[in-house]
Fold:
Amino acid sequence: MSDKRAIGVFDSGLGGLTVVKELNKLLPFEKIVYFGDTGRVPYGNKSRNTIRKYALQDEKFLLSHDVKLIIAACGTVSSVAFDTAESLPVPFVEVVSHAAKAAVSATKNKKIGVIGTSATIKSGAHKKRILELSPGATVIERDCPLFVPLVEEGITGADDIISIETAKRYLEPMCKAGVDTLILGCTHYPVLSDVLKKVMGDGVTLINMGEATAQYVKDYLNEHNMMSDAKKDSEYYVSDKSESFSAQARILLGDSEITATQVDIEKYE
Structure:
């Protein structure tokens, strides 16, 4: 038995494509319907009520496409607005718990760093989950509000002085504390992996929430007989500037055929 309906994925902008990239690797026959809220990015500096409103609208948009499962490929929504899933008629997957589990498995010295948006770090969601899994762990958290704009603007090279100096300033506490594992607590951040590796050094394991989440989704679909057995073209939607999103998505996903469609997300109240 199979389920040919699409997997719905949403994020505040480009970042959720790092989750899509991992889904494509593990689930090549699954269609993805992706929504990037590029008109309202970033979510991380908004109030909890605003983030919840945005998440609900994003979820309603995806449901209008008859998806079989929704992934909040957004660390901010997963941290502070995961309760929006309570009324959904389909399974909901957040990215925080899977990243925390992967970090606890990876660390050798039990010193784990977490970087994310201001809202994500303020919520303490990663730290709470890590300590549930490993009560003796030391967790160092740091919000990095400039990382999302850097990714959205394509300033992500390891030889770019802006990205490197920004990362050095944010990651200094992690380096001093001697963390050996770093959770990239926003799905935009894997795009900066080369920068983060250069600053943190080869001895630090970077936890990509997309990888951990994609593995969970694969296991879930398999267990519940929801895997698709026939690939259909994925669809990409944004709330603003579809041309620039499409160009960057083609690079991130290695697919020259990607074209995003702009939608009015405010209609999905």
About this structure: The chain is about 45% helix and 15% strand. The two ends are 34 Å apart (CA to CA). The mean pLDDT is 95.
